[in-house]
Amino acid sequence: MRISTSQYFGMNVQTMDDQQSTLAQLYQQLSSGVSLATPSDNPVGAAQAVQLSMQGATLSQYASNQNTALAALQAEDGSLSSISSVLTSISTQLVRAGDGSLNNGDRGAIATQLQGLRNQLMGLANGTDGSGNYLYAGYQASTAPFAVNASGAVQYLGDNGVQNVQVTGTRNIAISDTGRQVFLSISPAGSAAVTAGNAANTGTGTIGNVAVSNPADPTNQHKYTINFTSSTTYTITDVTSATTTGPQPFTTGQAITLGGGGESVTIKGAPNAGDSFSVTPAAQSNTDVFANLDSVIAALQAPVAGTAGQANLTNALGTAMTQLQNTLNNVTTIQTSVGGREQEIEALQAVTQTNSLQTTSNLADLTQTDLTSVISKYTMTQFSLQAAQQGFSMIQKLSLFNYIGN
Predict the structure, then answer these.
(1) CA–CA gap between residue 168 and residue 67 (Å, rounded)
(2) Which residues form the Flagellin N-terminal domain (predicted)?
(3) Cα distance between residue 348 and residue 65, in whole Å
(4) pLDDT in tens, the chain (406 residues)
(5) 90 to each of 66, 97, 225, 317, 321, how far by Cα in Å?
(6) Which residues pair with 128 in a beta bridge?
(7) In a designed cystine with 277, which of 211, 226, 256, 394 is the match (CB 3.0 to 4.6 A)?
């Protein structure tokens, strides 16, 4: 096949143009550091780059959410630690108030201290995070969750909404607990039944804490009243099932079996006819920590007269101690849950950071210039172009007339 001179020249010029274009493209990659400037450079790579960019943006948002969630949980964790400290101080004062050598003035002073601790607890219940949002208000984050109403009682103004944050593609995590959960509820696990004496009792009977011998007994969840028909006999009424047993002989300090025998209680002293005591499952008892504090403060402020008055005060303190312990157990349970969520987020942060670094690396490999490779290609293309130009220049000079004169 014969190639005309014009074809030959055209082919060489086209080859050199292609090499010039390649050099320009390689130079652009070297100067900008970007190997994938437009989709036409690498359509498949461009699609992968878009996907990686979207994945990187999603991971960045999850990382931001994780930081927000962790900060919120750390704020609540610190608040719960302070709440536990106040509750422990209240418990100490209640134990001190049980000292039989104290007079009415001493107990009044303790009541004043308890009032201060109650106010301190109220302040923590209305605590805020670094952004000024109330920690325990639920969705009503801009409104103080607790307030004192016209009768002097503490009222919850928040709602039951628990704020959640999406920290991964498949995980939403709660970043708050409501005031109702913390201050007006108890944990089913670890809470004790509440014993109480009727404030109108005239005898010297005092009821102790419930002893549980069979935690699986379903009748442990029943409410009972122990009614003295005389100073030596009593009946037991299962309020839940509306049944009454007895009368039974009473011996001070002897265990009184309740329900199916899964729990028992002791009463010491000398109850009078008409005196009564109650045993209420923790979940059915008054779980409002502020109302319980108000009740025991009122009991300490009231003058104690005679042995019957001292017995009633002892019963009131015993009831308050059990209720407070149930509240403290609830706060500890919630704080444990908060700590677990903090650990989960910290673990997710590590995974998210690793995935983000890998995504960034993959995107860089796809779009950033590999200097070693591009410089090598640039040098080889430059040499090829120079060789083509020199060869074409020499061939241009060849002519039949150069041989005629010889």
Answers:
(1) 12
(2) 11-140
(3) 11
(4) 555 555 555 565 666 666 566 655 655 655 555 555 555 555 555 566 567 677 788 888 989 999 999 999 999 999 999 999 999 999 999 999 999 889 999 999 999 999 999 999 999 999 998 888 999 999 988 899 999 998 888 999 999 999 999 998 898 999 999 999 999 999 988 899 999 999 999 999 999 999 999 999 999 999 999 999 999 999 999 999 999 987 999 999 999 999 888 999 999 999 999 999 999 999 999 999 999 999 999 999 999 988 999 999 999 999 999 999 999 999 999 999 999 999 999 999 999 888 888 877 776 665 555 556 656 665 766 656 566 555 555 555 555 555 555 5
(5) 36, 10, 28, 12, 9
(6) 134
(7) 226
Q: Is the dihedral of CA 213, 217, 223, 227 positive or negative?
A: negative
Strands 233-238 and 243-249: antiparallel
Which ranges in the chain are annotated with CATH 1.20.1330.10?
A: 42-193+283-386
Tokens encoding 157: 């103004």
CATH superfamily of 42-193+283-386: f41 fragment of flagellin, N-terminal domain (1.20.1330.10)
Length of the chain in terms of residues written: 406
